[in-house]
Amino acid sequence: MTDYELRKLKREDLLELLIAQSRENEALRAKLDQASKELSSRRIALEQAGSIAEAALQLNGVFEAAQNAAAQYLENIQRLSGEQERICVRMDAEARAKADKLLTETETACRRMESETREKCDAMVAQAKQESQAYWRVVSEQMEAFYKAHAGLKELLAISEQRNAGT
């Protein structure tokens, strides 16, 4: 497992990995102690056997056990590394799915809010147009009434202008 992968792991995962490694380490130490004891007993057996060939055959079993233990250790490390990789891939996929879901929800909420705002703005514009048209009608009517009421004043002004022009 690379340093980058280890850094991405959660504290719980790292602790589980450490506990598993510790257990495996203890098991291997026990096997090593057992192998050492067997090696001691083999030395005694070698001394008793009297033949180097016989001793080599007896020691061969110890070396095989050590080789098997080392192979098992490497196999376990590779298996744990593969499991951690699968966990990381799964967690990444879950995080991406959650982010996509949140993004979709946010986009939907934004579209809904934008639509509601447009509707409110359109309603306000329509209301403002109606109010301005009503106000303009009132002002037009008042101006028309003022014009009709003061039509005589217009005639007097015209006569006054003619007199002033004639003098």
Task: Write a structural description.
The chain is an all-alpha fold and 167 residues long. It has a domain at 3-117. It has helices at 3-8, 11-49, 52-149, 151-166. Helix 2 (11-49) packs antiparallel against helix 3. The chain is rod-shaped. The protein starts with a helix and ends with a helix. The mean pLDDT is 83.
Q: Please give the count of helices.
A: 4
In which range does the helix fraction lie? over 70%
Question: Mind summarizing the main beta sheet?
Answer: none
Poorly predicted regions are: none
Class from secondary-structure proportions? mainly alpha
In short, what is this structure?
Helix content is 95%, strand content 0%. By secondary structure, the chain is an all-alpha fold. The protein has a domain at 3-117.
What attributes does this structure have?
167 residues
Compile the SSE list and pairings:
Layout: H1 3-8, H2 11-49, H3 52-149, H4 151-166
